[in-house]
Automatic annotation (TrEMBL):
Organism annotation: Perkinsus olseni
Name of the protein in question: Uncharacterized protein
Region feature Disordered, mapped onto this chain: 161-194
Biological classification of the source: Eukaryota, Sar, Alveolata, Perkinsozoa, Perkinsea
Comp. bias (Basic and acidic residues): 180-194
Length: 194
């Protein structure tokens, strides 16, 4: 975090985002959100506030509004410009699509109803038949297409309408195994009505 500033009684006050080295408890450690807000607005402003409220208070401060991200600063040094980051654009991250395939496989195959062995089931879902090298290449191609459309200046609504026109059926979803040993074991007899 970079140091900030705020106005107090008509004077500009520099605010460090790291505790001083002579601090009795947190020497040299970064300050938390609550501490930063308390230094700016006082202890009464912090009482009973949740994190969202504290963030909202700092969003109104000039120094936080004017601060650029490290990514933007490095891009400007190279002569580039950042339009937006990928944080809120999962369509630009192919790994997100791969995670969707893994999550889908886990939802379908996780029929145990118990947390025992969950870690092993998650690891097994990573080796799903649905996630092939061809599928991963499709995810990367899709991300490149989204990026190309963004570079051309298209909005998300325009991109989605273009993709709907060319969408094809992608095949059936993976099915739940139904072999004789894969069926859940019941605790009652099937012929109980006879």
């Amino acid at each position: 975090m970079r140091d900030g500033w705020y106005m107090k009684r008509g004077r500009r006050v520099e605010q460090r985002m790291v505790f001083p080295n002579d601090h009795p408890v947190y020497a040299g450690q970064p300050k938390g959100l609550r501490q930063v807000v308390m230094e700016r607005f006082g202890g009464e402003a912090v009482k009973g506030k949740r994190q969202e409220d504290l963030v909202r208070m700092l969003e109104g401060c000039e120094d936080f509004q004017a601060q650029t991200t490290l990514l933007e600063e490095q891009a400007l040094q190279r002569g580039d410009r950042v339009i937006f980051g990928v944080k809120f654009h999962p369509e630009l991250a192919p790994i997100e699509a791969a995670y969707r395939s893994i999550a889908k496989s886990l939802r379908i195959s996780n029929t145990t109803g118990s947390s025992a062995g969950f870690k092993e089931r998650v690891e097994a879902a990573n080796d799903t038949a649905d996630l092939t090298l061809t599928r991963i290449r499709k995810y990367f191609r899709s991300s490149r297409e989204y990026l190309r459309h963004y570079v051309e200046g298209k909005s998300m609504a325009e991109i989605e309408s273009l993709r709907k026109e060319r969408r094809k059926h992608r095949g059936a979803s993976p099915s739940v195994p139904q072999g004789p040993d894969d069926r859940p074991k019941s605790s009652y007899k099937r012929d109980r009505l006879k």
